[in-house]
């Protein structure tokens, strides 16, 4: 309560903005995930790995647009590409000069993608991949995983959402090889696709066990099921996306977030034998519209970010800092004897206040949400804009200096609140 009061006292302008916003937006909100107690900070600008709020406080940004902000803020190369594109007109109504280059760059880099199509969000990318899998196989069911998130209308956390699409979803336990195999075999005749993140990102950064993904790959091949990796978050975990790092090639991949360079973005791709069904010159081809599928700003910003900013070295570096930071935070938790763990891989990690080993989302059910809420407010008060659910996502401009300061603040938080 004391921390919450300090938060309120410190942010009068954000509070006023929040009260105003409630007049037109339900709860003052248009993205559920950006809401938290007592009210969310209104952000006015960002530079590198820093954001500034309406009351003038600067924070190290570790929410990183829920992983989409890999490039950090106001990257000059991306900004220049966007400004050039705006000067030349952004609503041209034809193929533009950027899209094929971005497509080629994605196909070159991500081994499971032989052809790609663009859309407007990660949600759309997953919907299109699933719809294509159903049309290609002539089957209807989709196997997904409990506590996974594939977009606002495919949310399987906390028992699902009343807004979920009416696809016939079967839900298995992540990392439970035996259970998934049983379910896949039982429904094989009508199972179109298995969709999962190669690390359960939104579900708490739970890494796949070494045998889990290879086993799914083998079963999908055997049963004629299309294996879809939702790499909307995880493609940032390796230069060649996480499937490239792990050497496991799904049939289809959904992309989004950072690949649009900060503009709205989604893409789905995969084997040419599936994707070429979208070739409009073909008889009975799959139609896929979308006014903004190739919007000039996303294509221009995306191309600049993907080909000029995200070098192999930059990707390696941000993921190495993440691995180091995760290890250091876990050491700090041990030192202070706090029952918590930081899970994840590379530039994505999630703090969970839970005792014992965590390999499945079910093991997170007992986590202490009061500790988490305290951590969130206290880290924000210490100048670190972290995500309320415990997510810490790094951006390319995040450096050793910020990492050291974050660790010192984390250590201080643990020392103050351990009792
Ligand atoms: N899939 C995963 C794993 C995500 O984390 C998200 C977004 O958080 C989505 C899909 C949906 O992407 P978008 O918000 O662009 O629709």
UniProtKB/TrEMBL annotation:
Family the UniProt entry places it in: Belongs to the class-III pyridoxal-phosphate-dependent aminotransferase family.
Keywords: Aminotransferase, Pyridoxal phosphate, Transferase
Superkingdom field: Bacteria
InterPro entries to which the protein is assigned, alphabetical: Aminotrans_3, PyrdxlP-dep_Trfase, PyrdxlP-dep_Trfase_major, PyrdxlP-dep_Trfase_small
Signal peptide: none
GO MF term set: transaminase activity
Cofactor(s) required, per the database record: pyridoxal 5'-phosphate
The protein, known as: Aminotransferase class III-fold pyridoxal phosphate-dependent enzyme
């Amino acid at each position: 309560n004391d921390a919450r009061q300090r938060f309120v006292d410190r942010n009068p302008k954000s509070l006023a903005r929040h009260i105003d916003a409630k007049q037109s937006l339900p709860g003052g909100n248009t993205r559920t995930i950006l809401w938290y107690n007592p009210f969310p900070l209104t952000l006015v600008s960002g530079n590198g790995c820093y954001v500034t709020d309406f009351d003038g406080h600067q924070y190290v940004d570790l929410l990183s647009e829920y992983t989409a902000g890999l490039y950090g803020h106001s990257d000059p190369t991306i900004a220049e590409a966007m400004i050039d594109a705006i000067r030349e007109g952004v609503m041209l109504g034809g193929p533009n000069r950027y899209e094929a280059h971005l497509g080629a760059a994605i196909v070159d880099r991500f081994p499971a993608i032989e052809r790609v199509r663009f859309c407007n969000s990660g949600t759309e990318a997953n919907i299109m991949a699933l719809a294509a899998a159903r049309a290609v196989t002539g089957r209807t069911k989709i196997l997904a995983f409990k506590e996974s998130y594939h977009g606002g209308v495919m949310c399987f956390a906390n028992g699902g959402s009343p807004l979920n699409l009416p696809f016939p979803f079967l839900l298995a336990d992540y990392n439970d090889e035996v259970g998934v195999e049983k379910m896949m075999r039982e429904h094989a005749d009508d199972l179109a696709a298995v969709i999962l993140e190669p690390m359960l990102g939104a579900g708490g950064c739970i890494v796949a066990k070494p045998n889990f993904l290879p086993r799914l790959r083998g079963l999908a091949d055997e049963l004629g099921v299309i294996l879809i990796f939702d790499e909307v978050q995880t493609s940032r975990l390796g230069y060649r996306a996480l499937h490239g790092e792990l050497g496991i090639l799904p049939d289809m991949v959904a992309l989004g977030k950072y690949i649009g360079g900060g503009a709205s973005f989604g893409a789905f791709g995969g084997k040419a034998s599936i994707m070429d069904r979208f070739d409009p010159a073909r008889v009975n081809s799959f139609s896929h519209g979308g006014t903004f599928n190739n919007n000039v700003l996303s294509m221009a910003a995306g191309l600049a970010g993907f080909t000029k900013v995200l070098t192999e070295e930059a990707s390696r570096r941000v993921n190495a800092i993440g691995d180091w930071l995760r290890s250091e935070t876990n050491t700090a938790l041990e030192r202070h004897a706090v029952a918590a763990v930081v899970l994840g891989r590379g530039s994505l990690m999630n703090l969970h206040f839970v005792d014992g080993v965590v390999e499945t989302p079910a093991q997170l059910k007992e986590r202490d949400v009061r500790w988490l809420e305290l951590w969130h407010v206290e880290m924000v008060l210490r100048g670190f804009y972290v995500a309320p659910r415990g997510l810490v996502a790094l951006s390319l401009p995040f450096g050793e200096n910020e990492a050291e300061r974050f660790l010192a603040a984390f250590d201080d938080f643990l020392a103050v609140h351990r009792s």
